[in-house]
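Reading group handout, session on sequence-to-structure problems. Before we discuss, look at one worked example. The prompt was deliberately terse, the way you'd type it at a terminal:

> structure Coenzyme A biosynthesis bifunctional protein CoaBC

The input record follows.
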Amino acid sequence: ENHIVAETSLKGKKVLVTAGPTYESIDPVRFIGNHSTGKMGFDIAEAMADKGAEVILVTGPTHMKNRNTTIKNIKVESAQQMYDVCHQYFDSVDVVVAAAAVADYKPKVVAAQKIKKNESTFTIELEKNPDILASLGERKKQQYLVGFALETENEIEHAKAKIKKKNLDLIVLNSLNDEGAGFGKPTNKVTFIDKDFNIFPQELKSKEAVAEDIVNKIKEHYEI
Ligand code: CTP
Ligand code: CA
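And the output record:
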């Protein structure tokens, strides 16, 4: 009789989260990477697991650790590897949250041996990586697809274009123009935009609280 069915439950929902940077090899000892710590994606995975969801967390190189032992963490290095894992699990999941900072480009050729220094300048030719989220958008059936956008100008317009291009249900816009938001800061200020282009500006808050807001926003989709 004391049973309380949590309204907050995501029990029975399977969620795929991507997090962290990707590393793109140049030669056996060097790579192209970025400064992503993976914190946002890890916080989202934890918030999802706290609400009972089954979480698959696909991460590029990061030192972050999971608190919830139920989270299945699959570690990758490159964008291509992250792409392969995401497509392997996509059919079976209900929600995808793409929080990874995927390298847009990778070296066209990976040298088999360590590159020796010679000339005074050195050029590496890069080619585009696959857009993981857009490719999932093309395959979308039941899945609720959430992406991120980091913009420095015309933020809303650029974010809306990403919703369309990647067939998203929700985008989380990170604005670098906001005081207290962005890389290396403990806080973040985001704006949610849904697929109908409704705009929901959020308060400046801790990254954990932003993760909680994102999960609650996704949850609304299953409550209507
Ligand atoms: N993303 C992805 N695969 C890529 C690049 C991006 O899955 N190769 C995802 C990111 O995880 C994020 C969203 O797409 O959820 C938007 O990433 P962002 O870098 O803002 O956009 P891009 O499409 O790469 O465009 P640009 O960097 O030119 O703004
Ligand atoms: Ca990009």
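Points for discussion. First: Residues 207-221 form the longest helix (15 residues). Second: The domain at 14-106+125-221 is CATH 3.40.50.10300 (Rossmann fold).
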